[in-house]
Amino acid sequence: MKIFAFFAALFVATATGTAHAQDRHITVNGTGSVEAAPDMATLSLGVTTQADEAAAAMRANSQAVAAVLSQLDQKGIEPRDIQTRNLSVAPIWSGRPQKEEERRITGFVASNRVFVRVRDLDHLGEILDAVISKGANDLGGLSFALQEPEPLAAEARARAVADASEKARQLAEAAGVTLGRVISIDEHGGARPVMRRAEMAMADAGNVPVAPGEISVEVSVSMVFEIAD
């Protein structure tokens, strides 16, 4: 029994020492960001028409959308950068159910929404003005992006790792220990493009003025370093 107790105590002491050794590390978070001017915009253009009959509403809508698409083609937008996302026809009801009034259909509304990528921002305002003048009466959104974000993401990752490494060095120096090898690196959520100072204003006449601002590609990492001594 004494021999068994001795080996059991030795096992516990060894396990405890191993656990403490594994706990000798420094964990830090680092962030990196790179700013750049966007070189692409995505538009959400809608055409909404109304008529007494569903077929008439859709016919008028199709004609207006065809004019918008023709204008986009004339402005050099490639077919691969144009996509119809939503197409609908819905009745227009009169009367209010909460008042127990008789409801009836008084007409129909047709809607078609097209998403467009503009790869030449120098002509963005001109394109917006052209499609609005040809019948696009619902501008649902405008966002800016980068056609090739990966080089910026790679630079942001390098900056994030450098930021985390510097923090670990400072912590080790403050604690009076020696910083060892990297045990692990984790990236949180991947590279994230974030808009900076982007805005758009509608004009009464002429081209629509657009300010694309900047896009910041941000990366966050978590790193674990070994304490060498």
UniProtKB/TrEMBL annotation:
Q: What Gene3D superfamilies does this protein map onto?
A: Protein of unknown function (DUF541), domain 1 (3.30.110.170), Protein of unknown function (DUF541), domain 2 (3.30.70.2970)
Provide one Gene Ontology biological process annotation.
Answer: DNA damage response
What PANTHER family does the database record attribute to this sequence? Answer: PERIPLASMIC IMMUNOGENIC PROTEIN (PTHR34387:SF1), SLR1258 PROTEIN (PTHR34387)
- Extract the Pfam families matched here: SIMPL
What is the scientific name of the source organism?
Answer: Ruegeria marisrubri
Instruction: Write down what this protein is called.
Output: SIMPL domain-containing protein
- State if Signal is listed as a keyword: yes
Instruction: Give the signal peptide range.
Output: 1-21
Keywords attached to this Swiss-Prot or TrEMBL record, sorted alphabetically, are: Signal
Q: Which InterPro entries match?
A: 26kDa_periplasmic_antigen, SIMPL/DUF541
